[in-house]
Amino acid sequence: MDFAIIFGSLFALVCTASYCVLDVIGRKAKVYVDRLSSQVSQYPSLTVIKPVFGADANTERAFRSWLEQEYPEQIQFIFSLQDSKDPALAILEQLKSEFTFEVIVNPVRVGFSGKMSNLVHGLEKSEYETLADIFSFTWNQILTQVVGPSIIRHDPHGLAGGTILVKKEALERIGGLQQFRDILAEDFAMGRAAKEKELAIGLGPEVFSPTGTMRFTELYSKLQRSHLVGITMNPRGLPSVLLWYAINYGYLFLFLGNVTYQVAALLIFVVRAIYLGWLNTIAEGRFRIPWSFVIGDLVAVLSFVLSWFNRKVRWGDGVYRVAKGGKMVLVSRRSRE
Fold first, then answer.
1. Radius of gyration of the chain from Cα atoms?
2. pLDDT computed for residue 214 by the predictor
3. How far apart are CA 209 and CA 197, in angstroms?
4. Mean pLDDT across the chain, nearest whole number?
5. What is d(CA 222, CA 219) in angstroms, rounded to the nearest whole number?
């Protein structure tokens, strides 16, 4: 058998093994979280701050997934926006007839990213000591599954995952939320600051959310932001990032070789397609392979390479230049007409 086919087969097995390990870890973590949550008799009241910018076909569904949380204590929901013309406001107005929550609209503070400005404004309106920031669409017991383990595991001051949970006291100990006002990945920076203060941090359950239709520019911006986090904020982690890229996107380059290399690439392609179909099962409840992933993979590789030379990224209504440490410098900002 040609070396390329042997290599492709081994590489496909590595991909399969990696995905299976992720699956096993995720399932075991969920069982562990469910067990810990069932042992809690007293939950704290929560303030949930959701920074909002814009709306799409999934926005109402996402909002409902947060507002329909099954949680035994009081939840103060704060939707924090930055523009009175934001289309998400109309959706929130409709939901007010079914749910109780607060909506605040404030312009972006000077020197802040849009998201961090929204979070800080929300923090100023918070009533409870325990804060959460729910990410995208989620299931109706995510808060219970995040808060429960934090109580059992010696009450950690921070919990990272699909939903970030933190206490006001912990924020004060690491210097306040304002210090992350212009950081590309504020959750990464918060975790690093908490570690330096020797605060306990737990890892919450993973969340797979449907994203809906996405324009090319949106996909490119999201990928570029994730690349720049590794390049500017965690250069020591780049070897593991490169390995992950090789596992996920290596088949693209094998397709450029001769027939035997193309057979190897096909093996890897099939494994990746099945894995993405499994992720879709988690997010949407049905197995469906998103065949456009090949285009997405090409864009991911291209954006990773270009991110080394172009540090400008679009986020919300602003264009930023990302410097060392993930610090963002505003280049331009557009306003809704």
1. 21
2. 74
3. 32
4. 78
5. 5
H-helix segments, 285-330: 293-307
CA neighbours closer than 13 Å in the CB half-sphere of residue 326: 24
Give the residue from 214, 245, 209 showing the smallest Cα distance to 230.
Answer: 245
| pTM assigned to the model | 0.78
Going along 84-190, which residue ranges are E strands?
102-105, 130-134, 158-160, 163-167
CA torsion 145-147-150-156 (nearest 10°) is 140
Residue 312 one-letter amino acid? K
Length of the chain: 337
State the fold for domain 40-203.
Spore Coat Polysaccharide Biosynthesis Protein SpsA; Chain A (3.90.550)
Where are the CATH 3.90.550.10 domain residues in the chain? Answer: 40-203
pLDDT > 90 in the chain, percent:
13
Closest CA to 201 of 155, 269, 148: 155
Q: How many CB atoms lie within 10 A of CB 70?
A: 10
- Where are the alpha helices (H) located in 126-255, listed in sequence order? 142-152, 168-173, 186-196, 216-233, 238-254
Question: Measuring CA to CA, which residue among 259, 248, 264 is closest to residue 298?
Answer: 248
- For 212-253, write each residue's pLDDT tens digit: 677 788 888 888 888 888 888 887 777 877 777 777 777 777
CA pair distance 163, 50, nearest whole angstrom: 11
**Distance between CA atoms of 87 and 65, rounded to whole angstroms?**
19
At residue 16, the pLDDT reads 62
Distance (Å) of CA 293 to CA 275, 288, 296, 312: 11, 12, 5, 25
pLDDT of residue 104: 96
Q: Which of 149-153, 154-158, 192-196 has the lowest mean pLDDT?
A: 154-158
